[in-house]
Amino acid sequence: MSSDPNGRDTIVRYTAGVRTNHWIVAISFVLAALSGLALFHPAMFWLSELFGGGPWTRILHPYIALVMVVAFLFLATVVWQDNRMLTRDWTWLKRWRDVVNNREEDLPEVGRYNAGQKVLFFLMVLCLAGLFLSGIVIWRAYFGLYFSVGTIRVASAFHALCAFVLICGIIVHIYAAIWVKGSVRAMTRGTVTPGWAFKHHRAWLREVRHAAHSRPRPD
Amino acid sequence: MPLQSLDIVRRSATTLPSPSVREPAGGAVAKLIDTTKCIGCKACQVACMEWNDLRDEIGSNVGSYQNPHDLTDKSWTLMRFAEYENPKGDLEWLIRKDGCMHCQDPGCLKACPSPGAIVQYSNGIVDFVEENCIGCGYCVSGCPFDIPRVSKRDHKAYKCTLCSDRVAVGLEPACIKACPTGALVFGTKEDMKEHAAERVEDLKSRGFEHAGLYDPPGVGGTHVMYVLHHADQPGLYSGLAQNPHISPAVRLWKGLSKPTALGIMALTALAGFFHYIRVGRNEVTDADEAAAARFDAEAARAMPPATKPSPESRT
Predict the structure, then answer these.
(1) What is the CATH number of domain B8-246?
(2) Residue B115's closest chain A neighbor by CA?
(3) What pLDDT tens digit does each residue of chain A (219 aa) get?
């Protein structure tokens, strides 16, 4: 069992490797979103100054996005298994009113991820796949000659749509981390308190404890 | 803009009006290209090169008079040569001077994300301002006529300016000045329509019953118009669009969806803020920690004591 500097019991939720991976995705997402928004709406064009002007924004955006997609692939393979929807997750989703009102008593037990996190995860997978494929089509510097103008037009609109859904999803993701106290700590320090795990992810806590108790002592 | 003799009615990626008090008294301008008078001499291509200081790469002959093969960043106008065998079995050599059509509703300007990289002057000319161009190529996607070309050298988009610099000081475009047959004429759009009507009447009297003016309404009309012998089949002229319009995909991408999407993103963030101040944070209490401790104790009791967790069980 790990513990914090005060000797209180903690549970490791994310290893340093997973945290690094997550934050590479997060940083590249923020940069890709800001540079993409700069090109999406005139009111956001000033964001291009953050990247050294319009042409630099146009040049950097796809490379930043590639970093995000590759890093997300690694992250997704790590968390994929724990994001499969189970029967209890559908019940959890149906009681979304209890969820948003902080009434967790009557909700089914939650594993490593709750149903909201799982839905968001698959939404991100779909959006990033859509962004990647349409992004290739509209990356004029390298692929402009390989696609018809009709394909490029549809890809441009689809790229914007996927980005819109992803950005809204990430806003929800970030807010949920601010709302459910202890979540940010899981992704910055890597650990949560047993109370946090008990309250929000009881089935996961059970698994963690079970695994710890049944593992033979290495001598 | 170093030289602003013309007011701007539309500016790319800009939500508020540009200075647009001055209006040309004679109305908008137009270039009329009479394909029925064109002899394919390419004087217009040369005049364009000279006035705009453009020297394209020398290409290779592929068995057609058409040279270069396509518009490029350095070839802003081009005679397209089409050989058409009409139903009577006669050959018709349909030569069309291709280049920017200067749409009244320009798809390039609608698609452009960079403020002021594409402008439309009050006289109707659509101009690219390369200093503001970021090289994304959205104008290429937006254009219904496949006109803009992004340069490999500086990654800026180029096309015919309708010699906006000449027109602004009362001169006609260079190509017009060079045309030896009067196939190219320039003036106010109204005058050009009148002139075209006379030409169409003349052509009809000489057996071209489908002769007509090409001023496509799908893009609000154009400031470069054609007189065609076969106005019912513009496609004969090296694929001139039958009914050009801004693609629905571009309209969706660059239309109402922009403010709507931005609004929904802002509302999503606002919803989070108000949830936070109305429902509040979800915190782990001491009672939760105590419950977790009881839970752990029960779990430990259910397990044999010899298998206490090791430090390696962190993951």
Answers:
(1) 3.30.70.20
(2) A42
(3) 577 777 788 999 999 999 999 999 999 999 999 999 999 999 999 999 999 999 999 999 999 999 999 999 999 999 999 999 999 999 999 999 999 999 988 899 999 999 999 999 999 999 999 999 999 999 998 998 899 999 999 999 999 999 999 999 999 999 999 999 999 999 999 999 999 999 999 999 999 988 877 766 554
Q: Mutate which of A153, A164, A168, A219 to test chain B, going by most B C-beta atoms within 10 A? A: A153
Query: Using a CB-CB distance cutoff of 8 angstroms, which residues of chain B are in contact with residue A171?
Result: 265, 268-269, 272
> What residue ranges do the domains of chain B occupy?
8-246, 258-309
Q: A206 touching B, CB under 8 A?
A: yes
Probe site for chain A from B73, B138, B141 (most A CB atoms < 10 A): B141
* Per-position DSSP letters for A148-205, written without gaps between them: -HHHHHHHHHHHHHHHHHHHHHHHHHHHHHHHBTTHHHHHHTSEE-HHHHHHH-HHHH
Domains of chain A in sequence order: 2-84+117-194 (1.20.950.20)
Reported ipTM: the value is 0.91
Find residues 252-311 of chain B whose CB sits inside 8 Å of chain A.
252-253, 257-259, 261-262, 264-265, 268-269, 272, 275-276, 279-286, 288-293, 295-296, 299-300, 303, 306-310
> What residues have CB less than 8 Å from B40, skipping those under 6 apart?
B65, B79, B81, B93, B95
Strands B224-228 and B29-34: parallel
Give Cβ neighbours of residue A45 (< 8 Å, ≥ 6 apart). A38, A39, A54, B13, B113, B114, B115
- Selected residues 113-172 of chain A with any CB under 8 Å from a CB in chain B: 138, 140-141, 144, 149-150, 152-154, 156-157, 160-161, 164, 167-168, 171-172
- CB spacing of B276 vs A54 below 8 angstroms: no
